[in-house]
Amino acid sequence: MIIDCHGHYTTAPEQLGEYRAHQKSELEKNAAAKGKKGELNISDDDIRESLENSQLKLQRERGIDRTIFSPRASWMEHHVGNEHTSKYWTEHTNELIYRVTELYPNNFIGACALPQSPGVDLKNSVKELERCVKEFAFVGCNLNLDPSGGHWDSPPLGDRYWYTVYEKMVELDVPAMIHVSGCCNPAFHATGSYYLSADTTAFMQLMQSDVTRDFPTIRFIIPHGGGAVPYHWGRFRGLADMLKLAPLDELLMNNVYFDTCVYHQAGIDLLLDVIPNKNLLFASEMIGAVRGIDSETGYYFDDTKRYIDNSRVSEEDKRSIFEANTRAVFSRIK
Ligand SMILES: [Zn+2]
Question: How far is the CA of 179 from the centre of ligand 1 (A)?
């Protein structure tokens, strides 16, 4: 079996965008508006239509059996509005993922977004995580380390601020993919620089924290191939030494995993060379940040299964990346 651990509902029916536009227009009138949850009015047929010629078609073409599916990352936009805005919006997007998993139980496994809001405690996020795992059988969550959308004013991941979510993750035995959302700082391009900087930042923040000591069984996935981390593995190992930390294998590599959303062969080869096999989870993030065809290969950039198939690692290692490692990290997958 091949499990893609990183997919978002980027093709959701347009009523979802309309709901969000309405939320934003209400906030323009009154930024503190609590608003109401309201309805989405999306039919099962709307959902089928949104997936049949996109994610499902690509799953079939590429030989991917299951995708761990979560709300569109760039639309989480925790910086928009207030905690009520975020709560209603996130609940709707998670409920929509649940409906996808009910309509296509053999194709999609749910993971939730969390209703974070900058400067607000994580009580609502803990509640929503519990609801999604217990009521919807979701197997993981996306945790945004910078809910400000590019202004970086939240405490680092080692701060006690985050510990209520970590406690719930451990209690429910679910991992978090550390994933930022849309960016409102023009200095960053969302998927080109903001996402990759955030991935790199998450690793360094965890390095300088007590999180893995305080939560020995906690599991994080750093997406997009771990940002710059595998490429700069020597720098991070050297920093661990200089900062008198434990070696990375001990400090983080029983808790931190990288996905394979790296869109060229040489990048995947480096990732597979540098990072221990047990820490790698197959992912493509289709249909996501990079949607075109690579003129050098004639294949889609995000068809990452090809790169792993073509890599030099053993068949057993490939199987671990495609399935076993993901099942170990997302232990609630049935
Ligand atoms: Zn993503």
Answer: 7
Distance of alpha carbon 94 from alpha carbon 37, whole angstroms:
13
Domain, as residue range, for 280: 3-329
Q: What does the radius of gyration of the chain's CA atoms come to, in whole angstroms?
A: 19
pLDDT at 318: 98
Q: Which residues contact 40 (CB under 8 A, 6 or more apart)?
A: 15, 16, 19, 92, 96
Compute the average pLDDT of residues 113-132.
Answer: 98
Domain count for the chain = 1
CA dihedral for 332, 275, 65, 104, sign (positive or negative): positive
Mean pLDDT of 34-55: 96
Query: How far is ligand 1, taken at its centre, from the CA of residue 287, in Å?
Result: 10
Q: Is residue 196 part of a domain?
A: yes
User: Is 285 among the residues known to form the active site?
Assistant: yes
Task: For residue range 69-119, list pLDDT tens digits in order.
Answer: 999 999 999 999 999 999 999 999 999 999 999 999 999 999 999 999 999
Ligand 1 centre to CA of 29 (Å) is 31
> Is there a contact between 236 and 248 (Cβ–Cβ < 8 Å)?
yes
The whole-number pLDDT of residue 10 equals 97
